[in-house]
Amino acid sequence: MQLNFRQGLVRRQTDISSTPTFLQKHSTTGDYIDINVSPDPTIFTIAHGNANYLVEESKSVSKAWGPLVPSDTQWLYWDIDWATGALTRGFTTFSPVQGAEPPASPAIDQHWFDLTDRVMKVWNGAKWLMKLRVFAAQYNSSAILVHYTLGSQVGLDNTPCNAGHIIFGNNNKPLRQADGTFVTTESELIVGRGSSTNVKFDSVLIYAMATENMPRYSLISFTAPDKISLASHLNINREVGGIIVEDLYESEVGLVITNGNLKNEFWSWPTSVIGKPLFCGPSGQLTLTPPPVGINQQVGLVRDSDSIYINIMVPVIL
Fold it and tell me: I need a labelling partner for 129 at 20 to 30 A (CA). Which of 141, 287, 290, 294 fits?
């Protein structure tokens, strides 16, 4: 995703008056804070040297932060574990700062965004530790939530960058570049195709919100830039845009694959159909049978008994 700033909130839910509503008190006591992403997800970006990570809260979370002390002022943050890539949430009682030089005589748990290295750091009493963190809100001593605004939290506005989602391998570990930074959907990688070609994961992986319940390995159509529904050869106004690999419920955000090899251990394609074209059925299902009416669109090929190759072709209206 192309952004014009680094380290901050990209998107959040608001009410009709544009007041942020993506964070809410769990109860009147205010000891826990919920994340509300229905219908709009919360998206933020974390700067890490020259890398920029895009993170999305696509599901509402009860008691996302807490327990808090309503009589104290606390700053709520998201954290990406540098070892595992896992998303967690925490808070600090010290106001975060930024600058080219570290603050003098810092307290333990003081957060400082190093504008020289372009990374968040936290003082542990002996050393400034690198952290992948961005802040969500201040919860002040009057038990009032003060949401961070959209844009950079550290003065890096008007700083164009490409931020991408972190890519994980089959072992659920984040993939890394040679310099140790995470591989993202914006990373340029070399893919062997006889001759090497630079490609971006973003060209084949897309995240979108389901407008209805959809079973995994269903073909989908885009109903808006970031929304999907089940594809159907009977709907001549919407062509197939990709395939999902997990069950999605209405308003849930999931991954859409638009091109490439796809394996499913539960598939059992006969040997006789390997290399045969695949089409879309009336409810988004993969089928070897070309549709007799509606829209004829080849979506890929059978590659093996448990795998296919997604390659969506131009549709033909029957």
Answer: 141
Q: Where are the domains of the chain?
A: 2-162, 205-317
d(Cα 144, Cα 137) in Å, to the nearest integer? 10
CA–CA dist 293, 296 (Å, integer): 8
**Secondary structure (DSSP) of 96-127:** -EEESSPPSSPPTT-EEEETTTTEEEEE-SS-
Whether 132 and 154 have beta carbons less than 8 Å apart is answered as no
Task: Compute CA distances 252 → 38, 61, 265, whole Å.
Answer: 9, 13, 24
**Buried residues in 62-99 as b, exposed as e (16+ CB within 10 A):** eebbbebebeebbbbbbbbeeeebeeebebbebebebe
pLDDT digit string (tens) for 133-191?
999 999 988 888 999 999 999 999 999 999 999 998 777 788 888 788 899 988 876 55
Q: Smallest Cα–Cα separation from 163: which of 203, 111, 137, 202?
A: 202
Calculate the dihedral angle through the C-alpha atoms of 109, 150, 168, 75, rounding to the nearest 10 degrees.
20
54 closest CA partner among 131, 136, 162, 158: 162
H helix count then E strand count, the chain:
0, 30
Cis peptide bond upstream of 291, omega within 30: no
> What's 161's DSSP letter?
E
Taking the complete model, does pTM exceed 0.70, yes or no? no
Q: Burial of 233 by CB count in 10 Å (0-12 exposed, 13-18 middle, 19+ buried)?
A: buried
Q: What is the DSSP letter of 94?
A: S
Residues counted in the chain: 318
pLDDT, tens digit, 9 for 90 and up, residues 11-41: 998 888 888 989 999 887 778 999 988 778 8
